[in-house]
């Protein structure tokens, strides 16, 4: 039997439990965000928005019409709302605290309409438009308008939003056209319809050759890289399986200019097999020149070094275009090469190396001071590909002789040797029976800041040999200085191809010998 006192105690306990539960709910109260999207026809639509926490930069994907629990704080909300072929990009900032709501209305969008004056005779215009949070390239939404499409943006004065529109026009040539970047680092413009004067664009003449690549098909493209929302947006300005010379007209700013080789496997699968990139700062009204796929792909500018008492050398530098040295804003290459290397002390082989998934270079601890010889040979290798007939730069090699000792760090006293033939045509061919001057480029770059470069070695002699029978026999050719640059003077045969081998010998007893098989053709 429950007494009056017992009932009183039970009631008190239940009331206390209710109070504790209520207090716990108040402490654990959630903060939510509900986003509504309206298209240009005035209808509510379901889209997935990008929501960025402005303090932590953490991103969330939030579906419109769904209440989403988020940490309390300030956010940027970015959305792309499509209405048929019209795409609207919008960005808003919102404070999430309690039950927060936000509406993004595409009817507020303004047409993106970049123009050129005077308007050129071109095939079409493509506009890629992006809105970012915090002035960076993360947390962005993007849309691209081709010939029958349009892009709108919703203006905003928020300092947490930024904007970019990359517009490009393709002309009637295989390679060439116009590209402009309109970018704001704070806010989204209310008038996204700039007019660029064609006379104030920079002009880059691009000579895209053929011969050394594992594919004849190549693409020319540009990407802005000056910092901000537009970084690395992409504009294709032509592709061809023939040599091309085209003019790219670009708005002032910093651009990556790319030459990409595209090939097909025996099964018909297509993929990029090479990428060459030159970063250039373009000034209004100025002219520039750039060449892709030049002749004599061979050993690059990488040098052996000692690092904390270990001899190190990268094996991935055996097939380098001499116009893309890895320094001065030029880089890239083609990975179609199998490399074998050896390291000797005196006449004794210490170790051999091959490139592969787990081996990227030579790494050997110096146990004894002395004269070391490093030999690296690269042979073209691309499983599943049929190489083009007459492909150039089929194999390369480099030999370095240098002195090394224990417990040291720094570049070896050697130089890189590269060959730069002049006067070739678009297929990297010289005229039968002509003479080709081959510039001999000697360089010594420090690519890693925590290593000492030291003084350059003094050149004792420079000699070049050529082969016109694929490397079976070699003969010396004259080497002389022309306008301050060493050149090999090569008498060309009536047909075939020329292989080049140059040795730079130093007064310290070391040397570098670089070889390119089928460096250029005769045609």
Word description of this protein:
Keywords: Signal. This protein is mainly β and 523 residues long. The chain has three domains: 77 residues, Carboxypeptidase-like, regulatory domain (Immunoglobulin-like); 182 residues, no CATH class; 218 residues, no CATH class. It contains one helix and 41 strands. The strands form eight sheets. Strands 27, 28, 30, 31, 34, 36, 37, 40 and 41 form a nine-stranded mixed beta sheet that branches. A hairpin with a 7-residue loop joins strand 11 and strand 12. The N and C termini lie far apart (115 Å). The N terminus is likely disordered.
What is this structure, in a nutshell?
By secondary structure, the protein is mainly beta. It folds into 3 domains: 32-108, Sandwich (Immunoglobulin-like); 111-292, no CATH class; 305-522, no CATH class.
Strand-helix topology:
Elements: H1 4-27, E1 32-38, E2 44-45, E3 48-53, E4 59-63, E5 68-69, E6 73-83, E7 86-96, E8 99-105, E9 110-111, E10 115-117, E11 124-133, E12 141-145, E13 150-153, E14 161-170, E15 177-184, E16 195-197, E17 202-208, E18 217-224, E19 235-240, E20 244-250, E21 253-264, E22 270-282, E23 287-292, E24 305-307, E25 310-314, E26 330-334, E27 337-345, E28 348-354, E29 361-365, E30 370-380, E31 395-404, E32 410-411, E33 416-421, E34 429-430, E35 435-443, E36 459-467, E37 475-477, E38 479-482, E39 485-491, E40 497-506, E41 511-522
Parallel strand pairs: 1-8, 7-13, 10-16, 15-20, 17-23, 34-41
Antiparallel strand pairs: 1-2, 1-5, 3-4, 3-6, 6-7, 9-13, 11-12, 11-14, 14-15, 17-20, 18-19, 18-21, 21-22, 22-26, 24-25, 24-32, 25-29, 27-28, 27-30, 30-31, 31-41, 33-35, 35-39, 36-37, 36-40, 38-39, 40-41
């Amino acid at each position: 039997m429950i007494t009056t006192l017992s009932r009183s105690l039970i009631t008190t306990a239940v009331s206390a439990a209710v109070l504790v539960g209520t207090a716990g709910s108040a402490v654990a109260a959630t903060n939510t965000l509900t986003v509504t999207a309206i298209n240009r026809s005035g209808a509510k639509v379901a889209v997935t928005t990008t929501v960025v926490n402005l303090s932590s930069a953490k991103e969330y994907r939030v579906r419109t019409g769904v209440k989403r629990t988020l940490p309390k704080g300030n956010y940027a909300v970015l959305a792309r709302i499509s209405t048929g072929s019209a795409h609207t990009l919008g960005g808003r900032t919102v404070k999430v605290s309690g039950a927060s709501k936000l509406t993004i209305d595409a009817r507020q969008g303004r047409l993106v309409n970049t123009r050129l004056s005077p308007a050129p005779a071109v095939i079409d215009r493509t506009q890629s438009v992006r809105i970012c949070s915090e002035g960076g390239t993360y947390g962005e939404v993007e849309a691209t308008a081709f010939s029958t499409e349009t892009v709108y943006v919703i203006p905003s004065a928020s300092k947490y939003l930024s904007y970019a529109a990359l517009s490009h026009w393709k002309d009637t040539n295989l390679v060439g056209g116009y590209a402009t970047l309109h970018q704001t680092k704070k806010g989204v413009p209310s008038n996204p319809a700039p007019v660029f004067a064609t006379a104030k664009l920079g002009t880059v003449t691009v000579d895209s050759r053929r011969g050394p690549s594992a594919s004849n098909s190549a693409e020319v493209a540009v990407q802005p890289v000056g910092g901000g929302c537009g970084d690395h947006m992409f504009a294709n300005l032509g592709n061809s399986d023939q040599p091309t010379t085209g003019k790219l007209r670009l708005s002032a700013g910093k651009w990556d200019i790319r030459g990409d080789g595209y090939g097909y496997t025996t099964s018909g699968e297509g993929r990029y097999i090479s990428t060459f990139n030159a970063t250039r700062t373009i000034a209004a009204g100025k002219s520039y020149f750039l060449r892709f796929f030049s002749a004599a792909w061979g050993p690059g500018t990488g040098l052996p070094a000692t690092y904390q008492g270990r001899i190190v050398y990268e094996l991935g530098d055996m097939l380098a275009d001499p116009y893309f040295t890895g320094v001065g804003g030029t880089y890239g290459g083609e990975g179609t090469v199998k490399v074998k290397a050896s390291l000797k002390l005196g006449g004794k082989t210490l170790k051999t190396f091959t490139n592969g998934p787990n081996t990227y270079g030579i790494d050997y601890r110096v146990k004894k001071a002395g004269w070391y010889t490093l030999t690296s040979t690269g042979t073209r290798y691309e499983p599943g590909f049929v190489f083009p007939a007459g492909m150039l730069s089929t194999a390369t090699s480099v030999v370095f002789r240098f002195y090394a000792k224990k417990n040291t760090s720094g570049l070896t006293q050697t130089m890189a040797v590269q060959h730069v033939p002049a006067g070739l045509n678009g297929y990297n061919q010289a005229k039968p029976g002509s003479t080709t001057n081959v510039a001999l480029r000697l360089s010594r770059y420090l690519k890693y800041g925590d290593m000492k470069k030291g003084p350059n070695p003094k050149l004792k002699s420079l000699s070049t040999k050529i082969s016109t029978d694929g490397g079976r026999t070699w003969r010396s050719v004259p080497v002389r200085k022309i306008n301050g640059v060493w050149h090999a003077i090569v008498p060309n045969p009536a047909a075939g191809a020329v292989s080049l081998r140059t040795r730079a010998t130093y007064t310290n007893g070391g040397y570098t010998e670089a070889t390119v098989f089928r460096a250029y053709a005769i045609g």
